[in-house]
Amino acid sequence: MRRVLVLTPFFPPLAGGGVHRVLSFVRHLPARGWACTVVCAGEHDYWVRDESLLKQVPPATEVLRVAGGSALAAWLRVRGKADSGRRSGGAFAPLRSLADWWLLPDSYAGWSRRARSVAAARASRGDVHAVLSSSPPDSAHLAALDVTRTARLPWVADFRDPWVGLHFRKPPTPWHAARHAAMEASVTGSADLVLTASRTHERELASRAVGKPRRLLHLPNGFEPSTSTTQVVDRSRFRLAFTGTLSLMDDMGTLLDALERLQGIEPRARDALRVELVGPYDSDWEARTNARGLGSLVRFSGPRSHAETRALQRSADALLLWKPRGDGYRTMVPGKLYEYLDSERPILALLPEHDEAAELVTQAGGSVLPPGDAEALAVELAARLARWREAGRLPDARPAWLGEYARERLAGELARALDSLVERA
After folding, report:
1. With helix as H, strand as E and coil as C, how does 197-221 read?
2. Which domains does the chain have, with CATH numbers?
3. This prediction's pTM
4. What pLDDT, on a 0 to 100 scale, did the predictor assign at position 83?
5. CA dist 200 to 196, 264, 277, 374, 416, Å?
6. Kind of pairing, strands 281-282 and 318-322?
7. What is the DSSP string of 363-380?
8. Helix (H) or strand (E) holding 350
9. Given 3-state DSSP classes, what are the helix, strand and coil percentages for the chain, each rounded to the nearest 5?
10. Cα-Cα-Cα-Cα dihedral of 314, 318, 319, 322, to 10°?
11. Distant-in-sequence contacts of 388-396, Cβ < 8 A, 24+ apart
């Protein structure tokens, strides 16, 4: 059996959207001839944890934990708690700003240097056949770049999202922008294979003059098909749910505006509607919700186990989807979208026109509204409340094409790509 060395900070028991893609690789690659060694962060180095995910890691997986080394890990050690799932956005904003100035490419630069040494030592034992690095954070790729140059191993650079400091955040100075661009080009131009989670990002990389990848593969985030049919449904309420991180999400404000307007359109909405927000969140949003008198409508549940979150998706009457705003985010297809589609529940998405994620929602029969349009969302919610009162909870059709995005099948594509790289090398 061949072995792939995987570099990524986020791995169980750490949780959040960035964990599940790599976890699925580790789960499904061994059946296709690839054992996995994972170099990751320490067990308490992120503010969101899910101990239940550890049960999904195959016992044969070799896990090398490199604790500390990131700005967030240091902050959590000072605060003394990493798993509450609730943080102050006001406290994190200056930390993020400082990191943008002083830590390149990101706040995991220190972790990257330490992980590089651990990964290089593991590769030197001689039984590693390829390296895979997954971002964000992008510093994971820089560690892999150094390891593969020394060990002369095929390298796969996996971009769950584009280079964060260049595309999702505005570099503080032209010098910073140039450094980010050079780092990104060194990764995309040096890797033997670059994976993208969206076709939009794939097309963008393919069109580049500098740092154009040698080989590109679109590998969507996908989903693990749900194996549970258990649903706890409250038929006395119309339950609207959002699952995922609520940090840096402007359309949380759109939701609050829409709920206020909804009560003008439908005075009985307060008695019938409940909004469940499951996942890590900035405490500022909870304070704003209560200040506007919407605390009885909106519940911030914080992080739940992945199984609990999937069960909530299946039991909701409708699911909310949005993502951070900005031109850079056009390349992002939220990983939870595929889970939403698997839940067979209606989707209400606040997404721009001609957005890749919006196209998937539309193909599946969901509703796409403009980001920031509280009036349109209020009208849509009023219409859905009326239909719910007339007909009760109605199932949504599971798209026939969704099976193409099952992670077991996607891991098979990755395994074939890894085999090809090794054979060519």
Report:
1. CCHHHHHHHHCCCCCCCCCEEECCC
2. 2-222+406-424 (3.40.50.2000), 238-402 (3.40.50.2000)
3. 0.92
4. 47
5. 9, 39, 28, 27, 23
6. unpaired
7. HTT-EEE-TT-HHHHHHH
8. strand 347-350
9. 45, 15, 35
10. 170
11. 388/238, 388/272, 388/317, 389/272, 392/235, 393/233, 393/235, 393/317, 394/346, 395/344, 395/345, 396/344, 396/345, 396/346, 396/347, 396/364, 396/365, 396/366
Strands 367-369 and 347-350: parallel
Q: What is the pLDDT of residue 29?
A: 98
Count CB neighbours of 207 within 10 A: 8
DSSP tally for the chain: helices H, then strands E: 16, 15
Neighbours of 369 (CB within 10 A): 21
Q: Encoding tokens for residue 204?
A: 């963008």
Which residues 6+ apart lie within 8 Å of 149 measured at CB?
none
Q: Output the six-digit token pair for 70.
A: 């990131």
Type of residue numbered 141: H
- DSSP-assigned letters across all residues of 121-150: HHHTTS---EEEEEESSTHHHHHHHHHHHH
Residues 85, 81: Cα–Cα separation, whole Å: 10
Angle (CA) 50-339-53 rounded to 5° is 20
Both tokens assigned to 153 = 């191993």
**Which residues of the chain are under the pLDDT cut of 50?**
82-83
Predicted confidence (pLDDT) per residue in 344-358, tens digit: 999 999 999 889 999
Give the pLDDT confidence score for residue 91 in this predicted structure: 52
What is the C-alpha separation between 258 and 46, in angstroms, rounded?
33
